[in-house]
């Protein structure tokens, strides 16, 4: 049975009361909680939220609490379902990723009796869900339907999800300015009150997309051009760090094992040719001890994770022609190329530079250990 955490329960009571008692939205409630010094879940339980910064309440946190039916005291099952999808349908060796999707209402199961103490009544929770739907139905354009839907715009953001602010490390959001210029921006007002990043974060951090694309594409063409692929392969292999040293240790042990087995084969051949076995007893015992010790050493070594130069070369050959895609300049193909190359960008507004990293998707960490990556500073001045 789930136990009630009194300090966290007070925050849940307050969130439902504020939402049902006025015109406050998710973000407004989060702002009030931060202003009053109420610890957010990741700050209250850092051991359960190691992937979060714990720098305050966010609107998404409030939304998750308001939409969680377990606060009514009943246990629910099947709210989300898990499925696996291949990273690349044409390359099974690239591995797969696990995703979650919200189940349809008819697939959600609720227990008949309360399973733990309730923090809100069923009536309060139902009222909150009806209020959320009514607000969604009468909200901004594009949300006129009762069920919230998300529409995609006609203009693609080529660097969507790849550009991060160098001050707060959050992903920058795409925006269209003056109906024609594509920018990526980070707003200080969306930071949690009291966040350390507010001390140095400008009100708005803006970065034009076209300023980044030219030096980025130029660098990628140089790195993945077929004429310089050997140098790229060498750099990618070197970027694996300590994995290369482990691979060298394994290779040396394999060589010692081969030498010991070769000695035993020679001794067996000598005995078959008529040599007295007694004269070879000590040599045979020594070779068998060496083989046994080396075999035990190999079993104790971790599984090989570093990619060899030949493996890196083979995987790079599986990529589309980078130069051709960049020359064509089609936004959809460019966005797919950046995804395959694992492009990550960080904008340093003080130095007027973007730090770019590429970790080709064929080096998937879930499949073959450490990733291979290349980095460069792109000057924007």
Automatic annotation (TrEMBL):
Signal sequence region: none
Pinpoint the Recombinase domain residues. 1-138
Task: Name the InterPro entries for this protein.
Answer: DNA_bind_recomb_sf (IPR038109), DNA_bind_recombinase_dom (IPR011109), SSR_resolvase (IPR050639)
GO MF terms here are: DNA binding; DNA strand exchange activity
Q: What is this protein called?
A: Recombinase
Species annotation: Lentzea albidocapillata
